Amino acid sequence: MTAFTTALPRSPASIKHARRLVADHAATLGARQQGDAVLMVSELVTNALVHGTGAISLRIEHASETLRVEVSDEGNVAVSPSPMAGAHGGWGLRLVQQLADEWGVLEGSTKVWFRLGPPLPAS
Fold first, then answer.
1. What is the arithmetic mean of pLDDT over 77-95?
2. Domain ranges of the chain
3. Is 62 in contact with 122 (CB distance < 8 Å)?
């Protein structure tokens, strides 16, 4: 398993940068999972920019058939799918919930992660 962590600037350009990084690390996944991973990281980085505070961090862990992506910022509000998604937003975590094989939020933080593929081996 390999892991990669980077800081992302609080800029809309970070969304494209995160998408490219995830696409590069998801090369061992199938085409559908690659597309899903890129979409999900876009949503999570967008949420960090719009709703979060402070520095944004991206962590990518991958093994041959598994990808785990984590996006965090320095906020400490509860993160959950919006109860009222609509024309003005609220779809990001709902997409992650639907597309990921597994996902979650580290309690007491704004660290949101998703996994595609079989579980990663224990470190």
1. 66
2. 2-116
3. no
Which contacts qualify for 8-15: CB closer than 8 Å, 24 or more apart?
Answer: 8/45, 8/48, 8/56, 8/57, 8/58, 9/56, 10/49, 10/55, 10/56, 11/49, 12/49, 14/45, 14/49, 14/56, 15/42, 15/45, 15/46, 15/49
Write out pLDDT tens, residues 18-31.
999 999 999 889 99
Q: Which CATH superfamily is domain 2-116 in?
A: Histidine kinase-like ATPase, C-terminal domain (3.30.565.10)
Residues 6 or more apart in contact with residue 83 via CB below 8 angstroms: none
